[in-house]
Amino acid sequence: MASITAYETAKGRRYRVRYRTPQGRQTDKRGFATKKAAEAFAATVEVKKLTGQYVSHSAGRVVFKDLAEDWAAGKVNLKPTSTERNRQSLDNQVLPAWGDVAVGDITRAEIQRWIASMVDKELSPSTIRKAHNVLSAVLMLAVTDNRIASNPAETVSLPRLRKKPQHPLTLDQLMTFAEYAGYGRRAVLVMGLVGPRWGEMAALKAKRWDPDRRRLRLEESVTEIQGKLTWGTPKTHEARSLAVPPFLADELDALTKSLRPEDLLFPARGGGVMRNKNARRDWFDPAVLKLFPPVEEPAAGETPAPSVNFTPHDLRHTAASIAISRGANVKAVQKMLGHATATMTLDHYGHLFDDDLDDVAARIDPFSQPHGTVVNLASRRSGS
């Protein structure tokens, strides 16, 4: 049990609480102005020891940057792109604000002020939320290690995410865009019709084409991080099979006959992996400009900008839109796009299913099918 003793200071009598930690080490806390305050602290310590919530004051003195590096080093399950985004958030937003602060001194109010300061700097909501997620994860490690009692980042208010506008093409627009893309034609058709991510498309090799089933097997992805190519698994770490339309399957049949199994299906013009930035410069952005010409002529010396900000990821939206318009259900679209859950698919493309409601309403209208028979359920149950 804790013991309380009084001692004299230049400012008057103060009280010290002596107690043992759960590990049996004796420690104390002093400076209480009243005996009642000391007794309340002693009682709190004993309750926290009994309930497993005890945190020593000294444990919270570790500075945030040291714990952050331990946290980052321990995230061995992440893909390289996620590791790089965490690193950027740490270096650009989190460590400049919290690096030298003891984790036990970080409060919810200070975190909320930090969030507000990033809003004032006009950082995007996604950047702010990512920085908060990293801060919260490091503080959760402090909770797990019994350095702090609770995570002060858990209940702060965050800016709402703004959904990026999608620009899916119609099938006719996609075919036109593919022709404008020239060298990138097949890559555009694959992304716009069956929906792989750029890194998944760029990693496709000849051996991933199954001519019998007429399917592409996605098992790898390649990403450029700070100029270096990193190979790994698809985003959800799961391989998937993509059914290819007949006309495109015929082209892939002919293409793969001249390739070795390890050859890339869609290499860069000069060989090697088709890098996103280079492809955008060489053929993607010029094709966008032809499909969506500027509304107004640019001023002298200015680079013309397309009327629609169409990006490579919009080809993935195009694949989803075309599939849904042709009657694909949520689970089919989920499998095609490689989403972890059907909920994620609905979050992104639920609005495209709205037209199905009209079909459902028409199909359940008993008067829309004059030759149908209305069944009396009561009669069916009674067997009459």
Brief digest:
With 384 residues, this protein is mainly alpha-helical. The protein has helices spanning 35-51, 64-74, 80-98, 108-120, 125-144, 171-181, 185-194, 198-202, 246-256, 276-291, 313-325, 330-337, 342-349, 355-363, 377-382; strands at 3-9, 12-20, 26-32, 209-210, 215-218, 221-225, 228-232, 240-243.
Write the layout of secondary structure elements.
Blueprint: E1 3-9, E2 12-20, E3 26-32, H1 35-51, H2 64-74, H3 80-98, H4 108-120, H5 125-144, H6 171-181, H7 185-194, H8 198-202, E4 209-210, E5 215-218, E6 221-225, E7 228-232, E8 240-243, H9 246-256, H10 276-291, H11 313-325, H12 330-337, H13 342-349, H14 355-363, H15 377-382
Antiparallel strand pairs: 1-2, 2-3, 4-5, 5-8, 6-7
Summarize the structure in words.
This protein is mainly alpha-helical and 384 residues long. The protein folds into three domains: 3-51; 64-145, DNA polymerase, domain 1, CATH 1.10.150; 171-321, Orthogonal Bundle (hpI Integrase, Chain A), CATH 1.10.443. The chain is 46% helix and 11% strand. It has 15 helices and eight strands. It has helices at 35-51, 64-74, 80-98, 108-120, 125-144, 171-181, 185-194, 198-202, 246-256, 276-291, 313-325, 330-337, 342-349, 355-363, 377-382, and strands spanning 3-9, 12-20, 26-32, 209-210, 215-218, 221-225, 228-232, 240-243. The protein has a three-stranded antiparallel sheet with strand order 1-2-3, covered by helices on one side. A three-stranded antiparallel sheet has the order 4-5-8, with helices on one face. Strands 6-7 form a two-stranded antiparallel ribbon. Helix 2 (64-74) runs antiparallel to helix 3. The radius of gyration is 30 Å and the shape is elongated. It starts with a strand and ends with a helix.
